[in-house]
Design a protein that fits this description.
Outer membrane lipoprotein wza fold like, 3 domains, five-stranded mixed sheet, 18 strands, about 20% helix
Length: about 325
């Protein structure tokens, strides 16, 4: 990416291609149509940034009057980075710049910027965030204090992200119960470290190794189970469960009309809740009625009994 221009004029609108490459800012990657004028401004000033960052490049073009804060915002720091200061090597001298002075520190041509690593021997508590965000990866937290919404804001959610259904996966240790059977004990050991799913509000505090998932907005409601035409239906605010079921062809004869439930998506997991209101992405589940299950279970037996009784009756008639 050395010597790659950052400033590009598209029909007189200035875009920064690095904002798109490094931060996935879609506004900096406009669609090109016939007749548009594109003017590329080749850079004359460069800086080098290195150290404890994820997206390392040999040189980066500088914008006019660019300060240290705007330049660093292009990059994702590693969890082990010390973000309290950076070092700038300029004209064979080293200058330490504190975080509070990032905004006023103008970057000069041929500056060499170094992001230091934390000197602590103990690694920070980390969480991972993924999904519909600009900056996925690992972030340091304060155990039991940092909240989900703080990390989501740092990772910069995309418009396609559903912030009302942010999900947290948390690893929990399960003490396996002893069993006299070796194969059972072995199986319990394999599930001694499992992930539980937390689909709560974004004020949930975080623990070490939590995984945050920002799902994509889903504008459909799914009706499944014992309905005539199971299908996905476009979500419309205020539509009731009964109306969605009617749009799916209504209940079948085997449907349990009383125990309808809603599955709420949470990342790759689902939680069951009572029917109150329907949200985008919900799955309406219509179970099978217990009477229908009874008929299915006993019909073959009744048939066998009936056949056996007929045979016995025939034998009695023959004996007579």
């Amino acid at each position: 990416m050395e010597n790659l221009p950052r400033d590009i004029l598209v029909d007189s609108v200035n875009i920064d291609i690095f904002q798109y490459l490094f931060k996935n800012d879609q506004t900096q990657n406009p669609s090109i149509k016939s007749g548009m004028q594109i003017f590329v401004i080749f850079p004359e000033r460069f800086a080098t940034i290195n150290g404890d960052i994820q997206n390392k490049i040999s040189k980066i073009a500088l914008k006019k009057n660019e300060d240290l804060e705007s330049l660093l915002n292009l990059f994702t720091l590693n969890p082990t980075a010390d973000s309290s200061y950076v070092s700038i090597i300029r004209d064979q001298t080293t200058k330490k710049v504190l975080r509070s002075d990032f905004k006023g520190e103008l970057i000069e041509n041929n500056d060499f910027i170094i992001v230091p690593t934390l000197k602590s021997k103990h690694l920070p508590y980390l969480v991972q965030i993924r999904g519909e965000i600009e900056r996925p990866g690992f972030y340091p937290i304060e155990y039991g204090v940092t909240k989900v919404n703080e990390i989501v804001l740092l990772a910069k959610p995309l418009q396609s992200g559903n912030l009302s259904k942010v999900c947290v996966y948390r690893k929990v240790k399960i003490d396996p119960q002893q069993s006299p059977r070796l194969e059972v004990s072995s199986g319990l050991k394999n599930i001694s470290n499992q992930f539980i799913t937390l689909c709560s509000d974004n004020n949930q505090t975080l623990n070490d190794s939590d995984i945050i998932e920002v799902p994509r907005v889903d504008l459909s409601v799914y009706v499944n189970g014992y309905v005539s035409k199971p299908r996905a239906i476009a979500y419309k605010e205020g539509t009731s469960v009964k109306e969605y079921i009617n749009m799916a062809g209504g209940f079948t004869r085997a449907a349990d009309k009383v125990n309808v439930r809603i599955l709420t998506s949470c990342g790759t997991a689902f939680q069951v809740r009572d029917v109150k209101d329907v949200q985008p992405g919900d799955i309406i589940m219509v179970p099978e009625a217990s009477e229908s299950k009874w008929v299915k279970t006993w019909s073959p037996i009744i048939g066998v009994v009936g056949s056996t009784a007929s045979i016995i009756a025939a034998l009695i008639n023959i004996s007579r």
